Backbone:
């Protein structure tokens, strides 16, 4: 599903990413492990065509991400809080994302029911804007939105960051059950 060929990213004379070749087949969960500044998030940003590589390419289903839009229709992602729309309530945000993804109101309700335990009655019905949520609750919101619409490919950056241990366990269970249904591949960068 994903192929990386001669991928490099440099800022001035500093090379922050250098991957000669990598392949991640369909059906795999793949985690990147590395120190802060190792290039994990840079790789995700290139994979999502948010930044351009200095050299090389990322292919999703044999198409270069920076030359095709097709991969976007089956890809869910969450990198950080900048992916959220802070002036919306969580309810408004999910309504917006469901319209973009073509998810019906009924399917959205079913999707959100899967996350009730993870949200722990802290997300909805609080009359809060997203900007007023804790970092952990923003992370929960972003991950749930990334999984909306049963994407075949999910790219998440440090999905367990800022989550308490109970929420981490709940998210792992949710991810496992979703993966069995429809997800082909997920990329989880993890910092050590």
Residues:
């Amino acid at each position: 599903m994903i192929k990386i060929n001669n991928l490099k990213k440099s800022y001035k004379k500093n090379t922050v990413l250098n991957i000669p070749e990598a392949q991640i087949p369909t059906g795999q969960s793949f985690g990147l492990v590395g120190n802060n500044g190792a290039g994990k998030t840079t790789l995700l940003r290139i994979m999502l065509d948010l930044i351009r590589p200095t050299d090389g390419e990322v292919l999703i289903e044999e198409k270069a991400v920076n030359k095709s839009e097709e991969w976007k229709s089956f890809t869910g992602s969450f990198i950080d809080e900048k992916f959220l729309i802070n002036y919306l309530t969580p309810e408004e945000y999910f309504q917006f994302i469901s319209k973009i993804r073509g998810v019906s109101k009924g399917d959205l309700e079913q999707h959100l029911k899967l996350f009730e335990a993870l949200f722990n009655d802290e997300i909805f019905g609080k009359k809060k804007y997203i900007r007023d949520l804790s970092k952990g609750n923003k992370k929960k919101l972003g991950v749930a939105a990334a999984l909306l619409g049963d994407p075949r490919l999910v790219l998440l950056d440090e999905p367990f960051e800022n989550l308490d241990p109970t929420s981490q366990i709940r998210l792992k269970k949710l991810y496992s059950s979703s993966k069995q249904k429809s997800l082909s591949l997920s990329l989880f960068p993890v910092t050590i």
